# Entry
Amino acid sequence: METERRISTGIDGLDEAIDYFRPGDTVVWQCEHISDYMYVATRFVTNVARKGDRIVYIRFADHEEIMDTAALRERGANVEKYELDPRVGFETFAVQVHRIIDKEPLGTFFVFDCLSELQKYWFSDLMISNFFLLINPFLIRRQAVAYQPIDYEKHTYETMSRIRRETPLLANIRTLDGSVYIHAVKVRGRSTQTTYFPLKITGAKWRALTSSADNYAVFERFTQTGERRDCWDSMFDSVSDGHEPTDADGKLLKENMLRCLLGNEPTRLALCRKYFSMRDLLYIKNREIGTGCIGGKAAGMLLARNILRDEAPELYRTRVEPHDSYYIGADVFYTYGVQNGLWSSRIRMVEEADYLEYAQPIRELLLNGTFMPSIKEQFLSMLEYFGQSPIIVRSSSILEDGFGNAFAGKYESVFCPNQGSLEQRYAVFERAVKQVYASTVNPDAIRYRAERKLLDRDEQMALLVMRVCGDVHGDYYYPHIAGVGHSKNLYLNRQNASEENKGMLRLVFGMGTRAVDREADDYARLLNMDHPTAPPMVAYGDEYKYSQHKMDVIALKDNAFETVRVQSIDKRDIKADPSLFMERDYPTVSRLREMGLSTADAPDILNFRKLLRNTDFTDVMTEVMRVLEEKYSYPVDIEYACNFDQDGNYRVNLLQCRPLQTRGVGAAGVMPNVKEFYFRTSGNFMGGNVCLPIRYAVMVQVEPYLDLPEQRKYQVARKLGELNNRLRGEGTILLGPGRWGTTTPSLGVPVHFMEINRFDCIAELAYSSHGLRPELSYGSHFFQDLVEAGSFYVALYPGEDGCVFQDTLFADCENVYAQLMPSDAEDVMADVIRVYDLGKDQAILYSEVGSQTCFLAKV
# Structure
């Protein structure tokens, strides 16, 4: 039988004590000074280099270099140095180290800088032990022998305990009175009579200290005394009085705290420096579970509130409702992933296809993992604080809500009704946390990151846990109104165009989910803030049809988030004047009277007429958005909710604020020489002034589409996704009935946005005879996707004033669907989807904001 390979440490006495190294031995050296580590590392490397074995130095710290790789290489050593920057973030850094280990030969010898130095960049003991727990098993599998030093005086017992459990070898090293002392405290799989006695080295001499007197003399000076605070806590302890720093060291400390809590996004960070005091940062820290960044969504919400507090103090005092939030730090997400074995899959994820391949197994691990006991205890404490108030667990990833990357709707947020015993409430809350974590590998989120070349960026998931804004109304819990607002209105027509452009609001009764999600069978109230009291642009008698009929609520008895009909709500439970929000549908009342029928059953219509005319609500919201846009130096997108009392008093809860992704209007193009119009419309478009050559028009035929069974309608969406990729960059317009992205296939095509994101123009066509009507859902997540993708949007109403649509002109062009999708040539899909070739440089999409003109024309 072959004898197991033995590898020398380069120190005779240590070889004898631990019976040499074996392949897969990773050694953690607990030291007080880096010079002590350099002593053992130098002897180890010299011995390995003499034999010609491969040596790799992982360099990342500020301390002096452990070895001179250039000098070693000159002497013929097989050595390589990799210089890495931990500031790229935990995930990216760990992936880089993992890939270095993977590409090096089996049995390579690794020497690392001091792991404790990572505290300077990550400010968390937890993340240092996480890094070790990720890398160490891989080193062992690669049969490496690795040296990793750590300054045990800088770490908590919990951190050292996690490392001690996993490392094959752990040893202390100190220099005392001119001698080097090495004490092995763990050697996995073997022992000798002197393994766990201290080894004293003086010059070339060494001896094991076996007497009790010698041991006491050494251990009295060797022992770590007292529990160490986590470096995260220590950083905040040093400024517990909350005073603003005046000296350079204090200002640097505050800068580190800002970056640790609020992230490194440059534009937002500059604003945070101005609007976050030391007391603000301490308040966040005291509301944080775990450690690490609180993420973009939480940072944006707090920043907006602080701007209003400092720049509009009277408005803030009288009209802004305080928030009540906790934050689950991003480090908790990574620790959860490390604990539950996600890393083996994560490390294989390089390209978009890899992410999609491993997404499902990672999702299952995220949904079924377990949390550390210390984190569970903090979760329980938070739930005790919230009592039985409904809460929402919101995604707040590091990249989320940044300048250029909104991630609108890509990650989940989950409502917790929070009813029942503490144990029941905890079970629901934990599922919600896992559900949001699992949404990090949703295909739409992966494709979004890939489109924006963000797959290699650190994307940690923090969470924002908020007490839901609202009140108990009978058996339900909800706010009176909620919605989204944009400080600039990008969707103008002749009826609402204005030079001022004070923005827009999307307004619903009840929970704001019906404002941010694109509801297929309902309509939110859309307000142009230049003319907020203007009625909706619908025909007389149709206002009820195109208004909100359903509302989202938290059903307290059922302990569930539900959608109910507005008419089912008992007005006596509203706790405010119902006429602020609704009034009788008078056209219906008139028709019933004309028919001699009772008007008692005439429905109420949610038009918010009294709210808009008799309160200062629109003035307040306009001012909120104006101040935020001014200080951001950029248009903003907000989410809000609002509660009223019986006397009409109200406060606005600002739930979210992020930069509004805009394309800008751009300069008007030269009017083309038009031969014929494929379509022409006045207004109802978004995307600024454009003059785009269009080669292909992809059109979904309304009647063949509606004749399909429901499952085949979803297949239409998938086929459009294929065309989306095949026709990229070709100059393409997509036209279809009703609403793109609807969840109800009878009202439009149920595409995911990433299936249509590469079309240059997206058009929605109204077919009144089939009950299909476009609805931009301005302010929804679908809208955000349109703007970020740079897609032009137009709503077409054939037969109505100002709109011409010539489908026969399209039909005169060659349909090339079968050429692009030959496998579908004989399938019904070929009848449902047409791809018209309009000819190279023979069609132009033109729009001019000033005249509100938009057309697709043959030129």
Remarks:
- Residues 34-50 form the longest helix (17 residues).
- The mean pLDDT is 87.
